[in-house]
Automatic annotation (TrEMBL), chain A:
It is found in: Endoplasmic reticulum membrane. Belongs to the PIGU family. PANTHER family: GPI TRANSAMIDASE COMPONENT PIG-U, PHOSPHATIDYLINOSITOL GLYCAN ANCHOR BIOSYNTHESIS CLASS U PROTEIN. Its main location: endoplasmic reticulum. The keyword Transmembrane applies. Keywords: Endoplasmic reticulum, GPI-anchor biosynthesis, Membrane, Signal, Transmembrane, Transmembrane helix. It is a multi-pass membrane protein. Pathway: Glycolipid biosynthesis; glycosylphosphatidylinositol-anchor biosynthesis. This is Phosphatidylinositol glycan anchor biosynthesis, class U. It holds the Pfam family PIG-U.
UniProtKB/TrEMBL annotation, chain B:
Residues 33-42 have a biased composition (Polar residues). InterPro entries: PIG-T. It comes from the Eukaryota. Keywords: Signal. Transmembrane segments: none annotated. GO terms for cellular component: GPI-anchor transamidase complex. The keyword Cytoplasm does not apply. One of its GO terms (biological process) is attachment of GPI anchor to protein. The keyword ATP-binding does not apply. This is Phosphatidylinositol glycan anchor biosynthesis class T. Residues 1-26 form the signal peptide.
Amino acid sequence: MAAPLTLLLVVAVTIRAALYRSSLAEVIAERVEVVSPITAWKRVIEGLALLDLGVSPYSGDVFHETPLVIYLFHFLVDYAEITFMLADVISAIALYLAVKEYNKQVVRKKQKFALEADRYPQDCLELIRSPKEMLYIPLKVAMFYLLNPFTILSCVAKSTCGLNNAPQIITPHCFKISFAVFLCLATYQSIYPLTLCAPAMLYLMQRQYIPVNYRRASFWWFVVQYLFMYLGSLFVLICLSFFLLGSWDYLPSVYGFILSVPDLTPNIGLFWYFFAEMFEHFRLFFLCVFQINVFFYTVPLSIKLKDHPVFLMFMQLAVISIFKSYPTVGDIALYMALLPVWSHLHRFLRNIFLVSCVLLACSVLFPVLWHLWIYAGSANSNFYYAITLLFNVAQILLVSDYFYAFLRREHHLIHGLYLKKKDGSEATLVLK
Amino acid sequence: MAAYVNRCSNLLVFIFILSVFLFVDSQQTTPVNEQHTNTADNPQPAAESATQTAEEGRWEATEVDEAALGDSAADKLGVRASDTFVLTPTPQPKDDFQEELVIRPLHSGDIYASFQFRTLWETDFMRENKVSHYRLFPKSLGQVISKFSVRELHISFTQGYWRTMQWGQPFLPSPPGAELWVWFQDSVTDVDAAWKELTNVLSGIFCASLNFIDSTNTVQPSASFKPLGIVNETDHRFLRYATLPREIVCTENLTPWKKLLPCGSKAGLAVLLKSEKLFHSSFFSQTVHIRPVCQDRECKTTSWELRQTLNVVFDLHTSGQGKREWSLFKMFSRTLTEACPLASSSKIYIDVTDNPQEEYFELSPATPLLSQAVVLGDRRTFSVYDLTQQVTFGTVRSLNLLIRWKSTEGDMLRPLLHAERYVAGYGLQTGEIHTVMYNNHPFRSFPVLLLDSVPWYLRLYIHTLTVTSKGKDNTPSYIHYQPSKDRMRPHLLEMLVQLPPHSVTEVTVQFERALLKWTEYTPDPNHGFYVGSSVISALVPSSVAMDTNITQEQPLFSSFFPCKEESSYFVRVYTEPLLVNLPTPDFSMPYNVICLTCTVVAVGYGSLYNLLTRSFQIEEPNPRLAKKIANFIRRIRGVPLLS
């Protein structure tokens, strides 16, 4: 499998390198869909320029990346293109390995065990995935990540989103300690990966055969251990940033900025127009509602999906990328890369065709309506807003469809594929 | 003869009544009025300095006289008592008022008229016991100075833009809109609070929207605005600078400004300030400058200077029915009949440098007095009309200056430094500010300080800053940059750039336009947002030796900026303000947006909630309503139910 992967990497790097050399790179770097006020490369450069002038980059409201990023690029600013390509390549390889590992686990441990124990009903054999059809899934995932136009755009725009994605992806591949370190790196970059704590813990527990049972001491011992490592490394990172800059200015400027949404530059998310049109005295209330909304799904999802941490992680990534305050297409690319892992759910998806059409149409309409509003002046902000709404509805439908399909498959795996009513006629499944 | 005496006595009676009336009104003006009658009765053609001392002597005499005369009205006793109480322990308040009008015919056919009023007062506003006795100095401003511990205050209201390339340098530059800059005493602890309060007070005094000055348009320049008066400390923490480029200046700002003059608009040059004419002009600017100045060369005694100037450019070419001539009456619809009686000097200067043989225009009535002054690096010749002399008014007892053009030729000396600014780029996402500075000096290069204060909603990217002259990079030797904070403070960019001789220097910086909250837009959002002028301060090489002795007697208009060295003079140039459009949300649909976005969030929440809380079950078809009713009846009847 190494050869196709290498080929894929070469193709991906070639495309990116070619785009860097073309005049498109500048256009892409200005697109609001691709870069947000946090991740824009222009702002990173600005931060570096401010440092050169002897002004703290956090004294103004232009630079919002973390101190580690500015120090990374302090040394790598001349090799930025290579850094971003490398980040993408590393992410893809990490994804590849992680999915491979996960598949192995699914086939070896779960399915084999269940088959041998004869747990599945007879008619469910066609739902069970054979190792052969799962062979190409890791490669597909890497391909979905590397050749996704969204990833390419975000890499060509040098959006630091690509760098933020890397630690999130590397996470499930590692051992416990580095697991915590990478996750906290992701959290440090943009708060929201905090919710990935739950799937990460569940995943590790599953690998170490620790039952998820809150009456067991071993469960709690593991949680405490893990949280200690996670919070410890977060503490170290935050202190490190403090010592790099010698002030706490970056805390309000990075995290305050993410949470309080002062910059209303249009993007593909739900926040900008909502808070531009918000009545001032309701602002704080809705801000809390919208931010809690992102973190809110963690607990119920973890309870429902406690045996399927990877799917839980997929759900969390999707929820974050839809409801975060400054989303970009790079965030979407991350969870979309995992779609091939769930290719066995396709028979249960209800409106995948409609949703993919809407997503495609929206992706085309974003630049069109932006042009009409900002440059031509023949449309107004409502046009662009309408498209962001539709885009988000489509994403929500996509995610909930996958969630539905996943739950339905699990249900079939227990109760059989062809369900019958009491009178023997064919039954339909409903949610009740 | 008898008739003449009769008329004289009538006049005296009238003047006495008037003086009593004025005494009731304000006890400061009375004695001087009296003194004026004296001077009017026996005009003195002696030298000016001699008159001044003589006047002072007589002034004191009348003061005593007035006090000795006494008045029967009981309510005036208190006033006089306090008067004497203040006067006896401290020496006579040493104040002095001068007024002058400079008229310069411009080569474009316009007329530039600049009024200068200066009140000097040797007092200390900062001492423990408050200053309570005011004579010539306006009390409202004096109280402001002592309450807010102001060291220097400079305020200007301007309507229109000064076209440097057509009109040359003004005597005193000012940017369009309102500009305010204040140096506080270093004893002030909370400068921001004092500044906030001060702007609100000034807003009341001048009937202007200075109360819109807040932290989002206030900056602390580090180098561009140095104190113009006595300098003992220049820590820019005590400096605040703000402009309101959108401010519209009109009559309501002029009236309070006129009231600050000792004679109001009743006498002297101020009678010319009629708003219906002043605001029918190409350019109008009124300023107030307060600063401490030295009285003598060694600076042993200091005094406060209040300088009020009013600059106006009339476009008489278009409004003059094609005839190229103007007169005081045509410009101001008034003529002059007297000087302000309180003024120690009252003069009109007419710039006749380009017109030595009267080949360019003709001036009437002619005056024998000529004066030379070094203004803005150039030696200029002026015809002088001294209004304190009765001769000036001639037999008709009124002065109506008249200039009649003879030819339209003649070219102006190009200003050595001028600047312009514009926004480049299209669309509402990004843009670029271009500031272009011209050094027209043929062989000398000189440094300029450029100050830009840009509101936060245009996010400047300082790494895109480029300075080029003659096609080459011109790295500024000093850059002071303060990035903006959203809704808190503006960008401040100051830099020192060397302008090569005979060159054009272009400074560009890119910016991004922010989308604001819908309540942050002005009522006409698509009109755009104003960005205040850039300020360019420079020491421009002078062709003639400048006068470095500030205390020496010289015309007011030539002595505002202190001059430190003979070879150069200080110039401040303001560029055009910018008008920048921002993307706007739809103001009509906050409710719709809130509803729609909440709906989408609810769709997300609802679908996940649905899947999380429910479980899959086999659908048991619900019996139809008719069947239900039938079964219900059957159950009552005891008949077996339908399946």
